[in-house]
Amino acid sequence: MVDSAHPRARVLLITGPSGSGKSRLSRRLHASHGWPLLQLDDFYREGGDPGLPMSPLGLVDWDDVRSWDLEAAVAAMEELCRTGTAAVPLYDISSSSITGRHVVELDDAPVVVAEGIFAAHAVAPLRERGLLAQAWSVHHRPWVTFVRRLTRDLAERRKPPLTLWRRGHVLRRAEPGIVAAQQALGALPVRAKVAERLAEDLLAPGAHHPAGRPAHHAQEEPRDDRPARPPAR
């Protein structure tokens, strides 16, 4: 029988601007701690959905939260935390379509890592359900993020190159506002190195914070404005 008052795990939400390094961080946490990983971008709506928002470029605005299915994402996270298993979609960004489904299992892990650009919007519903461990907004300097994002998107052929270039500059200019909006939704702005250290705190007794508030020592890393090395991806 599922205990609704005491879930088997809680969710660590990792968000941030596209290309900020949140996926790399999530994979490292999965590898280091064995925490199951949910790719929240798999909950995008499909390209044929008539309710998709449009951008000023006349294209679907995939950076608008309305292009994402919040209710389905929260339902999957809750199912995984309470029952130990959840069937989630596999989404192909290049074709804007769901191509299949796969099962994610908890395996007695106390934390589920859930990452995506819209993850901060899940803070409130997860907190209401007693399922929120922490929420972080991973970010970097906007030009570093721009190069990383463009390199990744071109390599994966996510969209036509000109679309990626235009979108990249729009997101570069918007990045400070994106991070501020995610913070307003309840995600703590951090650099990836700081986040990895904070992850250790989630393993300590009594580390879960049902209200979703960060621990008192969870501070932002001092900014380093020295020129960055070329990104690895």
From TrEMBL:
<feature type="compositionally biased region" description="Basic and acidic residues">
    <location>
        <begin position="217"/>
        <end position="233"/>
    </location>
</feature>
<dbReference type="InterPro" id="IPR027417">
    <property type="entry name" value="P-loop_NTPase"/>
</dbReference>
<protein>
    <recommendedName>
        <fullName>ATP-binding protein</fullName>
    </recommendedName>
</protein>
<feature type="region of interest" description="Disordered">
    <location>
        <begin position="201"/>
        <end position="233"/>
    </location>
</feature>
